[in-house]
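Notebook B, p. 112. Complex prediction, attempt 2.
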Amino acid sequence: MSSYNARRVRSDTPLLQREINGRPITYLDSASSSLPPRPVIEAMSRYYELRHANVHRGVYQTAVEATEVYEGARVATGRFIHAPKGDAEVVFTKNTTESFNLLAKSWGAANLRAGDVVLVTEMEHHANIVPWFQLRDQLGIEVRFVPVTDDFRLDLSDFDHLLDGVKLFSFTAASNVLGTRNPVKELTRAAHARGALVALDAAQSVGHQPMDVVDLDVDFVCFSAHKMLGPTGLGVFWTRAEILESMPPFLGGGGMIADVRLDGYVPANGPTRFEAGTPPIAETAGLTAAIRYLEGLGLENVERHERALTTDALARLWERFEGRVRVIGPATSDDRGGVLSLDVEGVHPHDVAQVLDQFGVCVRPGHHCAKPLMRRFHLAATARASFGPYSLSEDTDVLLEALESAVTMFA
Amino acid sequence: MSSYNARRVRSDTPLLQREINGRPITYLDSASSSLPPRPVIEAMSRYYELRHANVHRGVYQTAVEATEVYEGARVATGRFIHAPKGDAEVVFTKNTTESFNLLAKSWGAANLRAGDVVLVTEMEHHANIVPWFQLRDQLGIEVRFVPVTDDFRLDLSDFDHLLDGVKLFSFTAASNVLGTRNPVKELTRAAHARGALVALDAAQSVGHQPMDVVDLDVDFVCFSAHKMLGPTGLGVFWTRAEILESMPPFLGGGGMIADVRLDGYVPANGPTRFEAGTPPIAETAGLTAAIRYLEGLGLENVERHERALTTDALARLWERFEGRVRVIGPATSDDRGGVLSLDVEGVHPHDVAQVLDQFGVCVRPGHHCAKPLMRRFHLAATARASFGPYSLSEDTDVLLEALESAVTMFA
Amino acid sequence: MANLDDLYREIILDHYRTPRNRGELPSPPAIRTEGYNPLCGDELVVYLDIRDGVLVDIKLTGHGCSISQASSSMMSAAVKGKSIDDVRAVIERFKQLMTVHAASLDDGADAPVADIHTMGELAALQGVVKFPVRIKCATLSWNTLSQGLDEGYGVQGTGSK
Amino acid sequence: MANLDDLYREIILDHYRTPRNRGELPSPPAIRTEGYNPLCGDELVVYLDIRDGVLVDIKLTGHGCSISQASSSMMSAAVKGKSIDDVRAVIERFKQLMTVHAASLDDGADAPVADIHTMGELAALQGVVKFPVRIKCATLSWNTLSQGLDEGYGVQGTGSK
Ligand SMILES: Cc1ncc(COP(=O)(O)O)c(C=O)c1O
Ligand SMILES: Cc1ncc(COP(=O)(O)O)c(C=O)c1O
């Protein structure tokens, strides 16, 4: 796998040194949450040990440093995704889900009215569905779905028609269930041509491939730190400065105001307008460390590495189980990420995951917060294995061995 | 200061070992954010090193352990505040501010209509004002303020009248500017007698004194982990189970649903209904450690310790400066916490804080997110010093020395 | 460390492979109750034929993991033909078997040991408590049964006699 | 480590203690512009008397910290009597002096050094960049002046001639 040294990444990751049931852990759940390397964990400890203070408004040394940590993470994030105006366009949230709620409840509530259409896809995570349903219940907008084909791609045969009346097309760069990567630039061009804005769920792509919001030409991007080797408790919302400035406040409280009187309030300008209350500060120290770490690896390298693992795993799953273990997702590694949703003949995903745990293999059973997609394929659940920058083909070895055992046990 | 060993707490707190400008740090900004002791920092590192995984739905070992960490924190929190139904009543948010937004946008939007009154006080933090203004703009409710007297207490002379039409009385247990502690039980009894529910902003009291929601008989409580020796990125919302079950969802996304179909969604029951997306998991490990640490100290001891420091500081400030340094808050330590908002004659609070920084003294200048209160006292800002469990009377020594220097410098 | 053999006892796999009392009952007169585990998508329908305070027949349909399927199958075998009072007693004991006290989450203490000697085959399910995430799988059918009984009493009270 | 003497130069304290050009001008004809620093509550009103492209007079009222007060006082002394083009040039140079590049936040690099030799007394404010939180204090009056000029041109264009 070229000069990329996944073994080095693995040794940087404390959790991967752990043993489970007497075997080294085989972590195949990066699509749920990734494992932070030592520099990320240490950046947060160091922050608490040396610099912690509340941000903004402080003039003493540690408050200045904490503010630098926080605003520095905004700068690093802006650069990481190539935001044209950098930190001025980066809002910190709790997670991808809060980012989508911000999008729906600030931009959406201000710009959409009854009858307007928000187009999503059948392969969306609930984070990019439920906030739109909530807005529909409140404003009477229509939430429309791009269907998914039998070969796990967006069905674009009727796309032009689907775009009728659409004000926002909000879709995922990569499916957390199927692994499918959608043609972001092409879809964005089509939506823009029809006057719609475009929001991208980048939760499954940031940290797995390079992200350039200018190149993609999207209007909004949402993702989570914890899926890109960073900490829990921190998400990102990006939009162009012009749009950001036009968006009304979302959550109210300290930090997001310019003034509060007994008779009303004036919201602040810039990203802070959307950051009410004490933000996740230590978490931003972790995010900056994660970004630096990923930049050190090179996102192109991470992408190539994960693709090679995926190609290999797809081939070996087929070879070994010849259909007794079905992959719910594209069969080749073109336009797909390292997410393998498995359907094991005669064994419920919960039982698959339980047996795999005995081998130290971590896969996630369930609907993966994508119930419309599961229904589309008449599945209640899958057992999902997914790769990260630290994954090795040995992980696939153990996965196959453990799957064999599950198949045998329930035969 | 009895058997309580603040020096021990100090030595447990890594940040307090730091030097600033060649002097040991004198941290007097606990009202903004507290400094976590080593066990809290280590609980989070250990979590990332050994157990991190996304919570819920996972059956493999680390996912089970991460879920135990997360749900264990809910149990610990419920016990800590004496929630009658324990963890079933504890919702994790990002911070106090999100907790108040949850209160306003879920309970408030569902239970209040045009003309209903939400009563707050003039000494509220913006977190307990702005969400109500937002609801007013949306629903036409009235936001009414209990005034503050010249001696920094709630003006209850017209309280009965103020309660007319009030559906919710939402107020702070302790002012983050004045230090004033409000008579929670008495106010709650009066509000309940008039059929109003009561929400308590406990951001400045949890971690400084014992908290018993049953004894206080309040209906909602909001606070932040980072103000009680815990991490950033985590807040708590508590309400009685009956109320919690009746509240509609707030943010939408994964985790908070029972089902999602192409035509709508069914929210989950219990606290998770209000926890959309991947929650701050590592942060809950930190919160549990903070709770255990505080329980180890004994909240009564912490309270007694901080009161002794406050009594001492009030006396010495007066002795040394005879009015050239005014304390904006009650002059005696009865019914007040360890928050000292200073107004230094002829010196702007920003300059006070800047000069103090030279002595390694951390105080916060500004409006402390309480602009209505600042206006009430015709102040643009104060320089606020505040105590925590690790504070010592030596801190007051350095504060006084540094204040002397500021007074001289700008004379 | 919990062992997989604690969970997948042979008798559990047997019930999973050849579930007892699968099928439907005409409803009405049978009580039909749906159970649902939102976390893993398990679905279950329980049909209860209650006459003169006795659970004369019980049938089950739906899908789920081995634990949920086996538990429902074992449940049906354990309660069929019993008086409603006895059924409720079995439910109670089973719930006790499955209880992980909140305290054990908080303090890392072991779960309490229920009185398993009186439970027959059902005792095989006690290994589930060592896998707390699977408890919901084991209890789904029991909660659904319980709910069915509650509804059933409503129905009986108003006129199925 | 930044030193307090870099911030509170004697000349700054002097301007703070005895601010120049305090007061109001009748408006109109003077341009009246309000400045506001939401973070620390500083408030400032700038009055500009502009005639034939020259800033004939400037007055200031409001309150704020020593840095914001001294900066506005020094600003008023530096721009009073200058042509608008020259005023704009001074503003530009001052802003440069105060710039902390985003890159320095990110990488910890030092802020760039502006050309301070042409700035007279104003150069005393350069120590402020070592205290990034105070930059907003120093620039408040300048931003307000800048805004006043922009509005002024609108006013002049439409008829104060
Ligand atoms: C009384 C009070 N309420 C609410 C808050 C807001 O807390 P947070 O910033 O953690 O949301 C604070 C903290 O500044 C406070 O002191
Ligand atoms: C595609 C996608 N979108 C959104 C989310 C939600 O992310 P979070 O749970 O961090 O809010 C996820 C994570 O599960 C995801 O995979």
